[in-house]
Amino acid sequence: MSDNERRDKLFGDIAVEKQMVTREKLDRALVIQRCIANRTRVYMPIGSVLQKMGLLSEPQVEAILSLQAAPVQEAPVPAATAPAIECQPVEGDPTAAVQLEVSPDKLTAAISPAKAGQAPPPLDVVKLMLMEKEIAFGIVNDSLLAAHLSRNPMPAEPFVVARGTPPVAGEPPEIRYYFDTNPLRIGTLLEDGTMDWKNRGDIPQVAVGDLLAEMVGGVPGKPGTSIFGLEIPPPRVKEPVLKFSKGAERSEDGRQILAKIKGTPKLGVDGRIGVFGVLPIDGDIGIETGNINFDGHIEVNGGIDNGYKVKGGSLSIKEIQNAEIEVSDDLVSYGGVYASTILVGGHLKASHVHNCTLEVLGDLVVEKEIFGCTILVNGRCMVDSGKIIASKITAKKGITVKDIGTQAARPSELIVGVDFKFERDMNACKEQFADLERRKSELANAIVALKGQIDKMDAELGQVAQEQDGCMVQRRQLEEKLKAPEIAKNPEKRSLLDELIADLAAKYDALDKRVQELMSMDDVARKQISLHQSTIKEIEQQIAATQEQITLLEEAAKIDPGIPVVKATGIVYAKTLVFGPHRKILIPEDMRNVRIAESEEEPKQYQMKISSLR
Q1: Cα-flanking dihedrals φ and ψ of residue 46, to 5°?
Q2: pLDDT in the model for residue 427
């Protein structure tokens, strides 16, 4: 055995004896050491190999080398005679002098005795333990630590030996708008609850380059430092997002929104800022115009012919018949709306609505009548002087109407205080969250399976390494026999020995080939694990973003709750159904001038009550 091999064997025996590395990992390191030597013709000590593989830290390597500097023994140094390693706290070792506890936030580390009433360890042992655990920041000075360790028996209460610097949270900026974000484009709500249809408010106008909104204020957070000397980022500040749509653009520094065209600025329900021009249409939307798709405001002097589609920013029109309409802002129909499917991102105002399917994110204002419709409203539904007949209406902010139903029509269903958009968005987020968790679990299981394969390959590498060592020992023994004078004089024995040596060399080469195969398979498995781990990190980011979206939805729902109230200044006919978020009521008989509302009598005890408006 060469001097290098003897030193490596002693190093490995000490590392295994002190439970710093397993025998299987050591065998694999020896195989890799041999491969490095074969490829580069450079000898690398086994300690360096183990350190580069991440199996030993630099302080651990230095500790073992210090033991090797003692008089060389064929057997590894017994644990009882190893002065520095004996006292260092190895995880799971019941004889360890002290226990080291690191806080979950990695900002404090404290020591306490492993057993009550025991003597404290020397100062150097504790310092070595901190070094081995890579604790390098905020360590108490030696005099304080020595004073604590001078007390015998060692105090039972934990003693903080290192303290990091916590991060400081920042303050988010706010968005300042430079235009009226809620102009009264449908009408002015008067003090008595009625609408002044003629007063639609001023419509803001901007020129190219005008400042529409910007981020102001805000204080950045300050990072902290863990006891391991690593930077701890401050809590992420939930900054408001400056979002824009057509007609607007973000400044180069990302802190301003500017007008890109001349027109009317609008703040959408989704928080996007846009600027919209105007598309005038002198007559009807029909065969002469075709379907309309325009990002700005569409001003139609006529109506819409049957079967035509309109998509745009906002729409002003006389009458709508059997059409499909989608606008991101307001829709005003001075006449009626019939047999149409309409999505409105702002408010909708019409004279009357018959046999339609509507989804309105703002308010729905109808002057005369809603008949035979299915309607979702995320604001208020106001039919102040009109009727609701044979319709199903969901209105988050409540319903104000004169009459509900007739003697002959089927009863209406009114759902108030329920945010249909919140429920839809929340269900979508929960489905996405469940899908991401499923994908993450599948990848985690795949990583476990790959690690199992790596462990099997490690075990086989250890066996192959032992077989290679056996081949080398046998080959050296046979080569020594060849040097004997009696073998040199006997051609038959020499030929037999040469043949055996050749067989051992062939077996060694075959084993070395298997080593290369296993290492190649190991590399592939580790790359797959790395890819899976990278994908898991991406999924975790998506999970965090989805969870944040769920939290934002929940917070928004708390800030802007529904109003489960129906006000009828005329007649509510019998069998009308009114639903709140938690309770419902069937109107038993015709009633006049009533307020129907859900209220919370006791915590989570809800009642639907009918009271008089007078």
Answers
A1: -65, -30
A2: 93
User: Could you give the strand order of the β-sheet that contains 272-276, starting from the edge strand earlier in sequence?
Assistant: 243-244, 272-276, 264-267
pLDDT tens-place string over residues 224-260: 999 998 999 998 888 888 999 888 999 998 899 999 9
Tell me the C-alpha distance between 103 and 107, whole Å: 6
Question: What's at 448, amino acid-wise?
Answer: V
Distance CA 514, CA 320 (A): 79
Cα-based distances in Å from 85 to 51, 110, 128, 371: 18, 20, 9, 87
Task: Please give the structure tokens belonging to residue 457.
Answer: 């390959």
Q: For the beta carbon of residue 546, count every other beta carbon within 10 angstroms.
A: 20
Which tokens belong to 38?
Answer: 């074969």
Q: Which residue has the higher pLDDT, 479 or 547?
A: 547
Q: Which residues pair with 359 in a beta bridge?
A: 343, 376
Contact between 281 and 302 (Cβ < 8 Å): yes
Q: Helix, strand or coil for residue 440?
A: helix
CA-angle at 68, arms to 64 and 72, nearest 5° = 150
Percentage with pLDDT > 90 across the chain? 46
| Model pLDDT for residues 13-55, shown as the tens digit of each residue | 888 888 888 887 887 778 777 766 655 566 788 888 888 777 8
Residue 356 — very low, low, confident or very high, per pLDDT cuts 50/70/90? Answer: very high
Question: Could you give all domains of the chain from N- to C-terminal order, each with its CATH number?
Answer: 3-81 (no CATH), 98-163 (no CATH), 173-223+236-276 (no CATH), 423-559 (1.10.287)
DSSP β-ladder status, 341-344 and 357-360: parallel
Closest CA to 536 of 432, 436, 401, 435: 436
Q: Please indicate whether residue 453 or residue 201 has the higher confidence score (pLDDT).
A: 453
Which residues lie across from 219 on neighbouring strands?
Answer: 171
Here the tokens at position 531 are: 């890819």
Characterize the bridge pairing of strands 584-586 and 577-579.
antiparallel
C-alpha to C-alpha distance for 310 and 313, rounded to whole angstroms: 10
Q: What is the DSSP string of 232-253?
A: EPPPPP-PPP-EE-TTEEE-TT
- Collapse the DSSP code of 382 into the 3-class scheme (helix H, G, I; strand E, B; otherwise coil) and give the result: strand
Q: Are 381 and 375 in contact (CB under 8 A)?
A: yes
**Looking at 144-234, which runs of residues are DSSP E strands?**
159-163, 174-177, 188-189, 195-196, 211-216, 224-225, 231-232
